[in-house]
Amino acid sequence: MIELSLMIEGQDGLDWPRWQRLVAAAEEGGFAGLFRSDHYTNPRPPEKDSLEMIVSLAYLADHTRHLHFGPLVAPLSFRAPAMLARQAAALDDLSGGRMVLGLGAGWQEREHTMFGLDLGDVQRRMARFEEGLEVITRLLKRDEPATYEGTFFQLRDAVLLPRPTRAGGPPILIGGNGPKKTLPLVARFADIWNALYLTPQGFQERSRMLDELLVAQGRQPADIKRTMMITLYFGRTLDEVDQRLSWRQRRPELAEQPLDAFIASLQSEGRAIVGTPDMVAQQIKAYAQAGVQEIMLQWFDQDDVEGIRAFAESVLPQVQV
């Protein structure tokens, strides 16, 4: 059985009333989890509300009983790894063991420039990310004091107290598809791999690469949970689907394309799951057959709680069997 979770872009207008409604809808609808991005702002104007990630997850942890949750993903370009490990352990304990610690290197230049944050080039980002993973892993998974001397981060006989109730603390999720940099880090540090925007065939190819890297690290393929984030355009009818995709009318190269052809192109590129309940369920089943154990469905319209409920009622029963 594949798990289905929701993913919300927190920098795209998220405020407390919207978050409270989304949390309730996800919990009541029977979704497995609720995830959100971690950004100060969007890559392009205009500016929108952007509810702080850790504070928002504390609310979720205390107001739900079933959802697992976490950031997709927290950038170690502006999240200090020692503090993030401490916060994640506390959220995991508060929720009774439902926190997932999603981690990334950081990528969005605009927010870093705007707030005086050090993003750096790709090489610097990945080097800092690797060090941050070392710090977080040592603090969460080892009970003895940790010492680490890196270029970006240092520990000197550091120990987090209280120790996480769950052995090793919350599972570490690493997001990305890169075979040269990201997947080797997944094989070394992660409990969960979160792929991004792949077709079922593309997912299988990257999953096989990860298997080889895991074996080389002395781990087993079953040690890693396989998940994927992908956009969802869902409607109860094709007319509703067409409305969800109305943004294509603003792009001349897409405006004249028939709806069925445009849906097919989104699917063939692995950019989205698209369609009516039966269409969407069929696509989800194809991902399950490819080895995806959980899909984080990127839901853009934060005010469309009714759409979330309609999806839960019409699609979840078809795939959770």
Instruction: Give me the number of helical elements.
Output: 13
CATH class: Alpha Beta
Oligomer: single chain
- Please give the largest β-sheet: 10 strands, parallel
As a percent range, the share of strand residues is 15-25%
C-alpha Rg (nearest Å): 20 Å
Order of helices and strands: EHEHEEHEHHEEEHEHEHHHEHEHH
Might you state the CATH topology name? Answer: TIM Barrel
| Average pLDDT | 96
- Shape descriptor: globular
The H-level CATH homologous superfamily, spelled out, is: Luciferase-like domain
Spans of at least 5 consecutive residues whose pLDDT stays below 50 are none
C-alpha end-to-end distance = 6 Å
**Helix-residue proportion:** 40-55%
Structural class: alpha/beta
CATH architecture: Alpha-Beta Barrel
Number of strands: 12
* Total domains: 1
Report on the architecture of this protein.
- Strand 9 (192-196), helix 7 and strand 10 (225-234) form a beta-alpha-beta unit.
- The chain is globular, with a radius of gyration of 20 Å.
- Strands 1, 2, 3, 4, 5, 8, 9, 10, 11 and 12 form a ten-stranded parallel beta sheet that branches.
- The protein has a single domain (3-227, 293-300), classed as Luciferase-like domain (TIM Barrel, Alpha-Beta Barrel).
- Helix content is 43%, strand content 18%.
- It is built from 13 helices and twelve strands.
- The chain starts with a strand and ends with a helix.
- Helix 2 (53-63) runs parallel beside helix 3 and helix 6 (182-189) crosses helix 7.
- With 321 residues, it is an alpha/beta fold.
